[in-house]
Amino acid sequence: MFSSNDIKGLVSAIEKDCEDTLLPPEGGLEAIGQPVIPFVLIRGTRGYLERITHQINGTYTNGWYDACAVMIRRLIETLIIESFENNNIAQNIKNSTGDFFYLSDLISKTLNETAWNLSRNARQALPKLKDIGDKSAHSRRFNAVRNDIDKINADIRVVVQELVYLAGLK
Fold first, then answer.
1. How far apart are CA 48 and CA 22, in angstroms?
2. Does any domain span residue 13?
């Protein structure tokens, strides 16, 4: 016969085993496939950029398109900051208290920066990428669908690749 303490201990051990075997690893999983961003664009840059890219591709694969759009927005914002830092002009994108500007201002500063020359395609793409990310992050009644991501996929690739190079990461 088992005591109530034995049963509680057994249940606790089973719960712990389930957590360890059924939950994804603490640091997350790598995406299966590369439907949005080819991993070759980010591989070997920075670990946090690789994780964001896995999250973008993974959320798309799972049909979580709002999450995908928000992560795209985050990657673009991060790469813009990396680009300014790499060119030693990060002060151009900070306010008086030293905080980085919001994405709209980051994009304006990026488009007007004379330290580099963005391609026409990247210039046209940046506002589109911000728009879908903003809608997914801030609009109460907007839910992104697969086509929203699909129609900006070429723009994502162009902007990510250009910003990776401007950031000196490749």
1. 24
2. no
Averaged pLDDT, 30-40: 94
Cβ(102)–Cβ(109) under 8 Å? no
Domain membership of residue 19 (yes or no) is no
User: Cα–Cα distances in Å, from 44 out to 33, 35, 48, 51, 77?
Assistant: 18, 19, 11, 12, 19
pLDDT digits (tens, 9 = 90+) for 113-141: 999 999 999 999 999 999 999 999 999 99
DSSP for 99-137 reads PBPPHHHHHHHHHH-SSS---HHHHHHHHHHHHHHHHHH
Give me the CATH number covering residue 104: 1.20.120
Which residues make beta-bridge pairs with 100? 94
CB contact set of 50 (below 8 Å; sequence gap of 6+):
39, 42, 43
- Distance of alpha carbon 108 from alpha carbon 100, whole angstroms: 13
Q: Is 44 among the domain residues?
A: yes
Phi and psi torsions of 94, nearest 5°: -120, 150
Q: Residue 64: how many CB atoms within 10 A of its CB?
A: 15
pTM of the model: 0.87
User: How many C-beta atoms lie closer than 10 Å to residue 77's C-beta?
Assistant: 19
